[in-house]
Amino acid sequence: MPLALLALALVAFGIGTTEFATMGLLPQIADGVGVSVPHAGNIVSAYALGVVVGAPVLTGIGARIAHKRLLLLLSGLFVVGNVASALAPGFGTLFAARFLAGLPHGALFGVGAVVASRLVAPERAGTAVSRMFLGLTIANIVGVPAGTALGQQLGWRYAYCAVAVIGLVALAALAAFVPHQPRSHQAGIRHELRAMGNRQVAIGLATAVVGFGGFFAVYSYLVPILTHLTGFSESSTTWVLALYGGGMTVGTLIAGPLTDRALRPTLYGGLALLGATLVAFYFTVHSTVPALVTLAVMGAMGALVTTPVQMLLMAKAKNAPTMAAASNHSAFNLANAGGAWLGGLAISAGWGWASPALVGAALAAAGLGLAFLGGFMDRGNGGSDVIASSGTETSTEAGEVTAV
């Protein structure tokens, strides 16, 4: 693996740690800023809002900036946002700081995915992008539990300080190892927005919002589901979440090569298997071992969807892929919000703690329908171009990924 990919994976590791460790530290944060736990939960929404807003806006602002320089600027903003979170004196400033920390999230992943795809031969672009995403899944195994434990023992501010240090190390690694990749003379926000007008890009983003919403419908309520139905104590759910993260890591590892070999079939299979696993979880949740096995598979199938969606968007906006790649992470955060909301509605309606699994299965099925619609509309094109391993965003030297 090129060292540049390791640097990009380290950025993803820091992002995953700061995003998900917050959820485990809400009681400590609430005590620290003098609000209730539900009220403190709004800082999770603040971060997600930052992602949704920042992905297209910062990508558009940086449309003419060389990729490496833009990565360094965005990483610097990520560090500033986490330092501001650690130093926030009250809830209002913490809310603003978490919004600031979320702003570079989507743009970092979007620019990083384009850079990663051009570090290798075209036929291995999906594998390279999945290696960057690997940092995010490993964060769920190592970074989030470690950050949560650090925050619980020393105080939640130390967790954000630790993330800022990770960001600084990643910044140094990016500066040292990522090669310069010049932008085309045509690069600019109008060029990016024109590429975003592609119908396949719109369908791809809708697939991410709806289909991945099925994943978050369960993930958002996983701890109470495990404690109420499976019989785990709250203290033991941390290692169960690590198991879930392990499944996501396996899914990410296999997603890249499968995407390089057959993009759309990988997307179809990932969504279909995610829906089937969610249905299975509805029936296995009451038994410890079957529930754990199903959870690991669910994590793997959720991660299996991420890379083909990312590569599909980059392919369909191939002359200006950065904003499409970044907007994918806005879509994932909308999926997070929408899936959690629908899962919560099912629980509030009295359908039981297991009901989010069926809600998630329905969303995965709807996402699969959108993916099939995109594939049907694309049948006349014969394939999906991937990003060339080198060159500018108007390069015509593209590899091919089997579409159907």
Automatic annotation (TrEMBL):
Under InterPro entries, the record lists:
MFS (IPR011701), MFS_dom (IPR020846), MFS_Efflux_Transporters (IPR050189), MFS_trans_sf (IPR036259)
Q: Which residues form the Major facilitator superfamily (MFS) profile domain?
A: 2-379
For this protein, the record's Pfam families field holds: MFS_1 (PF07690)
What topology does the record note for this protein and the membrane? Multi-pass membrane protein
The alphabetized UniProt keywords are:
Cell membrane, Membrane, Transmembrane, Transmembrane helix
Tell me which domain of life the UniProt entry assigns to the organism this sequence originates from: Bacteria
Gene Ontology MF term list: transmembrane transporter activity
Question: Where does it live in the cell?
Answer: Cell membrane
Q: Name one GO cellular component term.
A: plasma membrane
**SUPFAM superfamilies given in the database record:** MFS general substrate transporter
Membrane spanning residue stretches: 42-63, 70-97, 103-121, 133-151, 157-180, 201-219, 239-259, 266-285, 291-313, 334-351, 357-377
Q: What is this protein called?
A: MFS transporter
Task: Please spell out the taxonomic lineage of the organism that makes this protein.
Answer: Bacteria, Bacillati, Actinomycetota, Actinomycetes, Kitasatosporales
